[in-house]
Design goal:
Length: 273
Amino acid sequence: YNYFIVEDLGMLPKNLLANIFNMIRKKVKTINVIHNGKLTDDPSFYQFEWDAIVAFDERYYEFLVRGYDKDKVKMIPYPANPMKKGDKSAARKKLGIPQDRKIVLTFGPAAELAAKLIPTIAKLEDEFPLQILAVTKNRDALNLVSALKSSEIIDIEIREEAPDMDKLYEYLHASDVLLINKPGIGQVVVSSTIYQCMGSGCPIVALYSPFTELMGDSIIKFTNNRELLAGLKSVFNKDDRYRTLVIETEKFVAENSSIEVAKKFIELFKTLK
């Protein structure tokens, strides 16, 4: 091999890696892609002499240059799945989802957080025929969504699944909007969920937080219930805000797709030669 790349050093047995790191570095160039949202207090993290440190964006860059040689810190964005749009009607038919409703999708463990917004979303039922589609195997999420389903405040469909990426994209293609309600965790973060899902073309309405603060108009952000309802209505009515969203989403995915990110890594390899 010619390059040794570590993703998320904190996941590795660092002291064991240190036993062989000098041998690796004598042979090849070494690169550390930082996933931590701040400089760690763990001293074992700093025992390696990397040829390059990769930051996902300027927020990561800002704290990394305080702990590493500034000349070694390079910005390469977190990768988004390339655009892969689908046919909504065909996807709904395949998945057994109603054709005549506005489908609000939530999935995975985060479905529990999104479910807390269902009573607010139900206020739109007078204007739109709605269905909440919750795809999750997370027990806490299932318990909350099931309780809300029993209350009959809104039509809720529960699919107890952990879909792979292809199946997830079928759900995204079948839905009118993906709802995300994930707050920050007190440090710099990126939303792997959003980066994975944007390429489906399904509009995303998400809570404004460190997960979404750099996403611009490629998603619709909300900070309160009023903004949440306004964002959903924009998507359902396909108004000017929605049309801007479609353009900005495609632009964001094109600039940050895994293909473009791979090219940036290849360019980094060339500079390290």
